[in-house]
Amino acid sequence: MEEQVWISQSAAGDAHAFAHLVERYEKTVYHHALRLVGSREDAADVTQEVFWKAWRALPSFRKESSFSTWLYRLTDNACLDLLRREKKRRGDTSLETDEGLSLAQQLPHPAPSPQDHVEAQERQAALEQGLAQLSEEHRRILVLREISGLSYQEIGSILGLADGTVKSRLARARMALANYLRKTGNFFP
Questions:
Q1: Does the structure show a pLDDT above 60 at 101?
Q2: Does the pLDDT at position 12 exceed 90?
Q3: What is the CATH number that goes with domain 108-189?
Q4: For the chain, is the Cβ count within 10 Å smaller at the N or the C terminus?
Q5: 31-61 pLDDT per residue, tens
Q6: Could you give the 3-state DSSP secondary structure of residue 186?
Q7: Is the overall model pTM greater than 0.70, yes or no?
């Protein structure tokens, strides 16, 4: 209930109330953006852009979906815009950062032993490579479901799709990723 008050107050121009919303969702937006764009700096830029857009658009927020779903939609769109701009600018689709580290190398891999740590890194790298080979449509839907843990309804709301369409596209995305991993010898249960 407190969140609804913050949303209403923010829509009326209360910056203090909006600061509470930013505090609550900043990490979620950042991590979702990081998984989609692959660069910490770009994810930070996207996060800032998302909250700037949210602040400006809050008066017209119709509450047809939850605030978090709306933020996911804003984040997803901002990431797609950034990836398209970068793709045009660089002419490639890699998930390499400016430091030359892939997203898989940036993510922490807690493991009890060095061998487990190395195996987890190899699995993560294979997954990241597989995600990079998927279409934007398949990558987006997999990240929203498998990494962000959103429901079919939330994904449908973000992407503007019916639940059945979300399920079928998710199944095709999983199959495409599994096929890629099998083809490269990196399939793991």
A1: no
A2: no
A3: 1.10.10.10
A4: C
A5: 888 888 878 888 899 999 999 999 988 888 8
A6: coil
A7: no
**pLDDT tens digits for range 116-162:** 666 667 777 788 888 888 888 898 898 888 888 888 998 998 889 99
Q: 62 vs 7, 58, 66, 145, 147, CA distance in Å?
A: 11, 9, 10, 24, 27
Instruction: Please give the Cα distance from 138 to 41 (Å, whole number).
Output: 24
Check if CATH label 1.10.1740.10 holds for domain 1-98: yes
> Which residues have CB under 8 Å from 161's CB, separation 6+?
155, 169
Helix (H, G, I), strand (E, B) or coil at 126: helix
Q: Which two tokens stand for residue 188?
A: 């793991």
Nearest Cα to Cα of residue 32 among 73, 60, 4: 73
Could you say which DSSP state residue 102 is in? B
Closest by CA to 98, choosing from 147, 45, 49, is 45
Provide Rg for the chain, Cα atoms: 18
Helices and strands of the chain, counted as H and E runs? 9, 0
Weakest-pLDDT range from 10-19, 74-83, 87-96: 87-96
Which residue, 86, 26, 85, 83, is CA-closest to 54?
26
Return the domain boundaries, the chain.
Answer: 1-98, 108-189
Burial 87-102 (b: 16+ CB within 10 A, else e): eeeeeeeebebeeeeb
